[in-house]
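Section 3.1 - Work completed
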Amino acid sequence: MKRLLILGATGLVGQQVLAQALADPSVAQVVAPTRRTLTPHPKLLNPTVDFKALPQADWWAADAVVCCLGTTLKLAGSPAAFREVDHDHVLAAARMAQAAGTPTFALNSSLGASAGSGNLYLRTKGETEVGLAALGFASLTLVRPSLLDGGPRPDSRLGEAVGLWLFRLARPLIPARYRAVRTEAVAHALLQAVRQAKPGRCWVENAEITPP
C-alpha cells in the first residue's frame, strides 16, 4: 500500500491504527490529518486541519482510508455538536477522499449501529454508515466493536469505566457478540479490511474482531 489515510489518529482506536500502520513495512506512507501535531515519523505526513473547513490537498488521494473519528455527547456538549463530529465530519472527509479517487474506506462504527435506533449514539453511527454507502466506494467496511477496552482515556468516562469492570468480571458469561474488545484488535481489523479491500459493502461484527 503506497498511501494510507487515517482520520481520527489521536483517538483511542486511531492511535492504535497509526502505530500499527507505521510499523507495517507494506505501508509506504501514512497521512494523518489532525487538529494537533503528532510525534514525527519518517513515514508520517501530518497536516494540521480544521475538520469544519477541510482543505483541498493532494494527500486525499490514497489507496485507502481508515476512519476513527468520533467523540462523546459529554465532550461535544450537545446532540448537534456530537452529530457534527461523528456524522458530518466523517462524511465530509469521505467525500474529499472519494472525489480524489480513493477506492477503499473502513469505518470504526459500533455494535448495534442503526439509522432507525432511538439511541442518539447508535442512530448517528447508523446514519453515518448509510451516508458512506451512498458515496460509492469500491470497498467499504464497517467495523462494529462493542465496548472498547484499551486502558485509561485522557477524558474521564465513569460510566464506561464501570461498564468495562463489569464486562471483565462477567466475561465468561457474556456472548462473544457483546464482549468488550481490545483497541489494538479493532485497529487490526480496520487495517485488515483495507488491505483486503473486498468489493462492495462488508461488515465486521464484534465477535469477528480478534487479537492481532
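Second construct:
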Amino acid sequence: MFMGRPLRLLAWCAVALIVGHVASLVARHGFDVYATKYGWVRQLDLNAEANLGAWFSSFLLGCSAALALLAAQVRRLRNEPIAGRWVALSAFLLVMAIDETAQLHDMASRPLRNGLGLDFGVLYFAWLIPALIVVGVAGFYFAPLVRNLSTTIRPQLLVATIVYLSGAIGLEMVGGSLVSGGHQSLGYLTVITLEESLEILGGLLLLNVFVNQLRELRPAIVLRWTGALPELSLADELTASPTDV
C-alpha cells in the first residue's frame, strides 16, 4: 500500500501509536494510580491535545502540504493553469496541520452549541457545522484539480479523503450521539479509537498520494551556488596543501 521506506516507517509509527492508545485506555481503567502518576497515558491518548498523537497527525498533514506546494511549483513551471489550485490545496492542508495541534476547531463548539441551543446528539460537537460548510466549499473548489489528476492518482486521493473524513467528521458525529453516556463509556471510547485511527490512516494515505503524484511529475531538482567560487592566485595555489586543493 505504502511505497518507499519512509512511508512504511511512518505506517509502523502509526500502528505503534494506535496500540499505545489502546494500552493507555486499559491502564487508565485498570491501573489509574500509576497512569496518572507518571503521565504517560496522556501522551498516548489519541483524543488528547498537545501530545505524541496530535504531533504525528499534524506532521503527516504538514508533509502533505509541503509536497502539494512542490507539485504546484512543478505545474507552474510547466504553465499548467491548475497550479494555483495546488497552491490553495497546500495552504488548506497547512491550516489543517496547525489546527490538528492547536485544536482551534474546538473553540467553536461551546459558543455554537449554546447559541443554537443544541443538546446531545450528532451535532453535540458543534464545530462540525462550519466544518461541513468548509468541506463542501473545498470539494467544489478542488473538483477541477481532482479531475486533472491521472486515472491512477485520482482514486487514491478520493479514497484517502473518504477515509480521513469518515473519521474526522463521520465518527465524530457518532461520538457526539454517545457522549451523553459519559466520556469514559465503552461505546464512546471505542468510537473515539476508531475515529482517531481513521484520521491517522487517512493522513498516511494522503501523504502517499502526494508522493505518487511527484513520481508522476518527475521534477528535476538542480542545486546552484549563489555566488562564484573564489579564485586562487598562483601564490595561493603553490602554498596550498594537497587537501586544500
